[in-house]
Structure formats: structure tokens, C-alpha cells
Description:
The structure holds 2 protein chains of 2 kinds.
Chain A: H1 2-13, E1 15-17, H2 19-41, H3 44-48, H4 64-69, H5 73-92, H6 97-115, H7 124-139, H8 147-153, E2 162-164, H9 165-184, H10 199-204, H11 220-238, H12 240-250, H13 258-265, H14 268-286, H15 292-297, H16 306-324
Antiparallel strand pairs in A: 1-2
Chain B: H1 2-21, H2 37-52, H3 59-81, H4 85-91, E1 108-116, E2 119-125, H5 135-138, H6 141-150, H7 156-173, E3 177-186, H8 192-196, E4 204-213, E5 219-223
Antiparallel strand pairs in B: 1-2, 1-3, 3-4, 4-5
Amino acid sequence: MSRRWDALVTWLHAPEPALWLGITRIAVGLVAAHALAKTWWTGAASWVWLDRAHGGYRGLKASIWFDGIGDGPLAVEGTLAAAVVACLALALGVGGPIVGRVVALLASQSFLLLADRNSHAGGSYDLLLSAALWLLVLAGPTQTLSLHARRTTGAWHDPEATAPRWTRLLVAWQLMIMYATTGWQKVSVHWVPGGDLSALYDILQQPTWSRYDLSWLSHPVLYAGTQVGTLVTWLWEVLTPVWAAWWLASTADVGEGRLARALRRLPIGWVWAGLGIVFHGVVHLLMDIGPFSWASLALYAAVVDPRTLARWANRGANRWATRNAPETVSAPDSAPGSVAG
Amino acid sequence: MTRHLVAVFVLLHLLATGLQALPSAGAGMDRRRWRDPTVQAELQAWRARLASVGWAMERDTFEDRLFAIAKGVESGREVVLGPVEPYLSATGSWQSWKMFVAPHRHPSRLVIEAEREGAWSVWYRRGDPDHAWQAAALDHDRMRAVQFRLAWAGYDRHLDRFAQAVATRVMAEDVGVTRVRVGYERRPTPRPAQVQAGEDVPWTPSRQRIVAAGDDGVLRVMRVR
């Protein structure tokens, strides 16, 4: 037992390239900042986050923060501004292991204060971003692609930076339980195989959530497409544990058994992530459900093998360096037409 | 030692979030919502499926049993999750992923109208660019989440107050407005064959509120239907 536990502790703490964490931190910080700022600039904040006494439509639940500073427009807008600044500072990667965590905590708690303020006005992206911000607090996320890296190493990206594996496990887990459990709750006869598979068609006709008039999806060919989409979406979500098993099997040091080897040979992760990107892209094109697609995709760097991600980054950086390298200039005394060797 | 504590914490976090994310009835425990035609159609379809495999039940029996099962599951969840909910709540790690679990086949859209000199005019209708009063705010996804919820049974008082807040803003913008009507239009989603045949499926008013100032100047809400 003790040996197994020690092995688990070692596995959880194994250092991995931290590039994924830098990408996730920037993406989550920017999506959260944009989500908050948009609530302010559209004027929606005055409807949903102001108490009835100040022009809102309902009495809002008490919180230590708003009880302390008041819950009028100035207090709400001040909190909103502070939350946007904290999220941007997080995206920028301000501070080292301690200050970086404090910045992430400020972003996390200020976002939560607002997202939790009115339970009628929340979206699933609030839950996902709140959870992701807390995971960034735990991870201490400024090792690379950050102001901190720039200050300590002279470069924005520190290729030597590492993060313990448990940080990536938590983020990947968050994404996967979201997909799996939303699928397991899709028990409508219009979602499950054996029914009419009309769920996507009907959802896309809802005036509350559709981005445009999508009645053209009633064309027989397109309608059949929505039925296929319904089935694929349902299977993709419900079978997320297969993705999770692949993720575990493909993570270094795990599973030398037959099943793990078989899983590793299949491109399951790429198929799942690829379908996820297509799914979120289509959702974003056809529906307006806030920044849910962006919030989800912000976590996708955690499902890619960090060594693969680091290889891609190196390849990209090399190409960029080659393309931008100063051209060889002929020496003034070279003969016209000579070729530099 | 720290490494071991971190490992314990990570495992507890995985367990707590995983358990809370598991399916639950949530707002579905409010049986007033079961009267909605979309919900009734789902229940009827599942009852028919069960009957086809030899498990026939009367509607009331089926719904009572379903409710009892859901109640048992919810009670179990409360016992298991009670100790970890303060952590999940304080850190923003709350897990509830009921996203489009069933398509709403009788959707609604918000309509705001104002009466001026005895004539009613539409100020806002969801998705209608010709009636787009405060559309930047009302069309924001947070406001649409509010509109979506208030269209359901069980939110009557909230809808009253929402109508009052809307009327306050409308009347502040146009002092000539005497009454404000806030409510929904609803219709069954046209089936593909109906759309292709050019059949018009009309919207019908629902959950309407009329707001007017009383003699004392206080805005009062009247439920119309």
C-alpha cells in the first residue's frame, strides 16, 4: 500500500513542461476579463447585479463583500473593474509563485463575487471559469508565457519551466467531468439513440439562444445533418470516460498493461479534442450562449501531451526565427552574382 | 511531507468535484414545472417506452414514483456532499452541468410593450431588430438567462418584479407612458415539415404582466394570464 501510495505521489508530482499552463492561464484570464467587461459595457450589469433597491429587478443575496462596501452602482462597478484588472493581470502573468497565486486568487474571488451574485443570470461558463480560476490559484501559473518569466529569464517563454503533473490532471479532469456529466444528464427522448434525434434542431430554434433565424435547418438534408449531430454530440459527451482513459494511458509512466498500450496506439485523444473544437465552433457560430465555447477551449491545452505541445512550440519558434532572421548581406568586395556559401 | 499532503488534497478535490457533477434533478424537483408541455411530453414518451417493455403505469403513479426516486437521490447527495460543499462553494468549484439536457419544444420570447395615449406599441421583442429597446443589455446572455428562467412556472414573483423594473425604466425614458406590459410569446417549435410547407405556427401571449402607477404613484403589477 505504502509503495503504491509513494508511486502515486511521485506520479502526481512529476515535472512536465509548463507551456500548457501558460496558455491556459492567458486564455482563462482573457475570457474571464472579456465576459465581465461585456456585462458592463452592454449595460446588462445594472439589470442583473444591482439590487432591487438600486434599479435591479430582484433582491440579491447578501455577501460579506457587498454588505461591507454597499451594493449600489459604485460598489458593483468598482468590483467589476477590479475583477477585470485582476483577470488581465493574471493573463499577463504578473508575479512569481506567491504573488502570481495572490493575483489568481483576486481574479478568482472577484469573478466569483459577481458570477454568484444573481443565480438567475449565470451561465455554465461562469461555473467553468470560476473552477478554472481556482485551479490556476492552486497551480501557481506564471512559470512561462508571463511577465514573471520575462523578468526572471529575459524571455516571455521559458522552455525550461515545469509544473507538477497534478496541476494538469486537475484541469483535464474539470473539462472531462463537465462533458461526461452533461451527457449523462441528456436523457430526453430527443437526445438518446432510438428516439427521433431532434434535440439539436429544436435547441437551435429556441429564440432565447439562437444567434440567427435557423428555420432553414428544416430542409430535409440539413435536418438529417442535425440528427447526425445530435447522435455524435451525445455519444461524444457520454463516452468521455474513454477520452479520460486515453489521457491517463498516454501520460508518461502510466499503464504498461495491455489495455493501456492498446489505448495509446489509437488516436482517441486527437479525435475527441478535434470533435470538441468542431462542436464548440459550430455552437459559437449558431448559438449565442455567452463565452462558453471560448471558456471550454481555454482548457484544451491541458489535454495535449505537454511534451508534444513543447515540440510544436519549438518548431513554431524555429520557423519564426528562420523567417525573421536578417538576410545574409554580401560583403562589399564580393563580385556581383556571387553566392554566399 | 508537503508532497503527500498535496496528493491527498488533489485526490479529495477530484472526488468532491466528481461526485457533485454526477446527475441530479436540481430545479426539476419543483413539480410545478412538470406541468410545462415540454416536460409533460418527455414524461409521456418515457412512460410509453416503459409500457412497451411491460412496465405500464398510470400517469400519476409514474410521476409519483419518479419524484420519489429523485427525492431519494437528492437526499443521498445532500448527505455525501454536505461536508464538501463549503469548499466547492468558496473556491468556485461548484459542479452543475445541466446543459440543454432536453430541448425546449414550447419556447418563449420576451416582449415589452408600452401604452401611450391609449395606444400600445412594442418596445422590445427578443430577436426582432425593429423592436430593440435596450437590446444591448436585454440581449446579453446573462439577461437572456434571466428571461429564460422567468418564463417558467415557479418564478411568478420574480417576473412581477422584473416587470416592475422594466416599467420603471420605460417610464423614466418616456413620461407619457401610462402602462407597461411585460410578458412572453410562446409557441410549439415548428416541425421541419411545417416550415417546409410554409405553415405559420402562431405565437400566443403568456405570463403577461401589466404595470401601472396607482394614485399614490407606486407602480403596481397585475397578472394578466
